[in-house]
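Whiteboard transcription, Tuesday session. T.W. wrote the structure tokens on the left side:
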């Protein structure tokens, strides 16, 4: 589903909508591991033309208790703990995991599932692949639901495939705001990501190091959250190392603060020495970029 949904006009800054996005990873024999990037259609008003991770906003249906019987790996209470958000309502916490699964299936065709007894699903089987392709199309057309797919196919959603990685909140200066949780997920065996050709018109596997180089060269466009997360991902050479480190990672909400001297084309992150938003301020991190500015049409990170 498109994360770019219109928001009602209010007297103050719009309230950020809960959303989920998924960084799908796989090991590579070429050196550094690879992650899946997908390019948004240039006609999209929100991040048009940018390379992004698949994802979108939380729907009310994602919080439907009727889905719980089809969920394996975590409980609602466990979802809060994994997200490191103890004050988040449990139904919304689990709903964010559901949204991550749904959006990844709708936008990339990757489905994080197992059989009802926990067994792997063989997507190399042509009949199985064709059935789930039909499910994806029906889900995108709102002709079916995740619960109906699970009941019909006798599957469960493997929420333990998802590992929370980061939490970003769109700044108040932006008219369309999202409260986005980033997850990591391995590419399941036998599945091949395919963009939906509507909102997302290209998909590619790319090492974080190469993505940063192409962005700086102006060959691909990464928006600030994707750019900073890509820097964080680039600290690891293998996906195994990344996942192990992420399980121990402290996740704190990142609400960027506008950088006034950049004329609206720059932000300070919570660990910047001059960041001042109460409740989001974090200790400085030596050697790590803490600002993102627009330079000759390209977003660049700065160490201050």
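and on the right, the sequence the group agreed on:
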């Amino acid at each position: 589903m498109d994360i770019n949904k219109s928001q009602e006009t209010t007297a103050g800054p719009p309230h950020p909508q809960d959303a989920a996005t998924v960084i799908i990873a796989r090991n590579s024999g070429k050196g550094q591991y690879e992650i899946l990037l997908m390019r948004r259609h240039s006609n999209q008003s929100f991040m048009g033309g940018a390379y992004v991770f698949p994802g979108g906003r939380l729907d009310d249906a994602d919080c439907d208790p009727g889905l719980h019987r089809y969920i394996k790996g975590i409980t609602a209470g466990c979802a809060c703990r994994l997200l490191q958000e103890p004050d988040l309502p449990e139904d919304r916490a689990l709903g964010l995991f559901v949204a991550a699964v749904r959006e990844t299936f709708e936008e990339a065709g990757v489905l994080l599932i197992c059989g009802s007894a926990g067994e792997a699903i063989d997507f190399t089987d042509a009949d199985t692949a064709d059935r789930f392709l039909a499910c994806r199309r029906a889900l995108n057309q709102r002709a079916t639901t995740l619960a109906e797919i699970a009941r019909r196919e006798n599957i469960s959603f493997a929420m333990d495939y998802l590992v929370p990685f980061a939490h970003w909140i769109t700044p108040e200066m932006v008219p369309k705001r999202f409260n986005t949780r980033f997850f990591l997920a391995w590419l399941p065996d036998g599945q091949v990501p395919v963009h939906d050709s509507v909102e997302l018109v290209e998909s590619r596997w790319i090492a974080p190091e190469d993505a940063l180089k192409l962005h700086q060269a102006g060959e691909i466009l990464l928006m600030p959250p994707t750019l900073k997360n890509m820097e964080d991902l680039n600290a690891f050479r293998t996906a195994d190392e990344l996942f192990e480190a992420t399980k121990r990672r402290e996740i704190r909400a990142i609400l960027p603060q506008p950088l006034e001297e950049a004329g609206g084309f720059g932000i300070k992150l919570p660990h910047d020495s001059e960041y001042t938003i109460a409740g989001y301020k974090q200790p400085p991190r030596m050697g790590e970029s803490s600002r993102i500015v627009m330079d000759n049409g390209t977003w660049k990170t700065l160490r201050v």
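Someone added at the bottom: The chain has two domains: 17-250, 255-304.
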